[in-house]
Amino acid sequence: MPRRNWAGNVRYAARRFHRPTSVDELRRLVAGSDRLRVVGTGHSFNRLGDTTGDLVSLAGLPPEITIDPERRTVTVAAALRYGDVATRVHAEGYALANLASLPHISVAGAVATGTHGSGEANGNLATAVAALELVTADGELLRVDRDTDGDTFAGMVVGLGALGVVTRVTLDLVPAFDVRQYVHLGLPREELDAAFGSAYSVSLFTDWRSPRIAQVWRKQRADQAAPPPGWLGTTAADTACHPVPGMPAENCTTQLGVPGPWHERLPHFRLGFTPSSGDELQSEYHVPRAAAAEVLAALDPVAHLIAPVLQICELRTVAADRLWLSPNYDRDSLAVHFTWSDDAAAVLPVVAAVEERLAPFAPRPHWGKVFGLAPERVAAAHPRYADFAALLTRLDPAGTFRTELLDRYFPR
Ligand SMILES: Cc1cc2nc3c(=O)[nH]c(=O)nc-3n(C[C@H](O)[C@H](O)[C@H](O)COP(=O)(O)OP(=O)(O)OC[C@H]3O[C@@H](n4cnc5c(N)ncnc54)[C@H](O)[C@@H]3O)c2cc1C
Q1: Pocket lining for ligand 1, CB < 6 angstroms
Q2: I want to staple 224 with a disulfide (CB 3.0 to 4.6 A). Which of 95, 220, 311, 356 is the partner?
Q3: How much is the pTM?
Q4: How far is CA 171 from the centre of its chain?
Q5: Residue 117: helix, strand or coil by DSSP?
């Protein structure tokens, strides 16, 4: 089991590492521990998932994937990667409504932080969760579902790993569909809204060195008409692209309008390839979708600080939801993502400058990435924050799943 996260910027402080092979073994482990966290695939960039006690990987539990055709759901072992789940449900004629840029992340880890893809009408990945099974701090197995547990369920899905160890996740399915991916170069900023509304899932990449958006990745349903030449003032890419200049495009999902299954087009990166070496840090902020143009204008004055420590900035849209700690709670969102260089000392002051510029938009940070926003600002941006804090105390009164980061943001 790795002792560091994927990016290598977090060395886990745990004293003991565990890889249980059954839920009963896991239950005994949790009941006997006073400090415990789970690690998924380690793709987070902060210490949310770290502990000084027991760090547990669920990768040794049976890799269950059970499709329920009547309910149109799939129940999966928490540690499975989206890419593995996707391949299996696709073989049975189903799809997940959306995926993140990377298929290598675990289902439970992604859901716990409100991980998202893009699309004006697509919620984040946690919105597809219909039920959860988790081991709570007392070692008991708890099952909650959307229909029976209503508002409490909405509080538990984006749970930050703080409410228990999720062992199974049930996800909604939709019929399988095909997607064509096109990349367009040099989008004028004034066309941002038109671009976002133009396809099922749209990502904009900018380097903050030019007023134009460098690349637009449009993932459109295969039956939608191909974009005309000169679409929105752009040039169509005639070879495959990587979002980060100079990186090999062979790591990326097929482009150039070639139709293919949803799970081989919605992520940016292929399951069989390592997207990069991990030499990066990431930050991301969700702001109101309607303010997209103002948000970019607010960042312009710090573009000269951003550009030198940036690999690439990605803009995506996410539909509003009702999940308490979701960055998209009750708010259609623009997600402003930064892939930074791996030089934390150079990056952190720029993160602070970006947060300052975004302040008027009540930014909600991605829970799994680098951020420094003051706890009271994060609390003020999340209408159900106090409800989550109460749930945390109710389900984990002794603080077994507490971490330093949680204590800072949800003080007892
Ligand atoms: C290259 C790259 C690309 C990315 N692309 C995107 C993207 O497109 N969109 C996006 O929103 N984010 C993206 N992320 C961020 C990533 O999706 C999140 O950080 C996600 O939480 C990582 O999942 P993980 O399984 O690696 O979780 P980890 O980092 O291992 O854990 C994340 C959190 O989940 C908790 N957790 C994990 N498993 C369980 C469990 N079984 N029960 C309870 N809690 C659990 C952990 O304790 C921790 O708090 C990307 C990250 C990388 C490195």
Answers
A1: 6, 37-44, 48-49, 58, 78, 100-102, 105-106, 108-110, 112-113, 115-116, 160-161, 165-166, 275, 366, 368
A2: 220
A3: 0.97
A4: 16
A5: coil
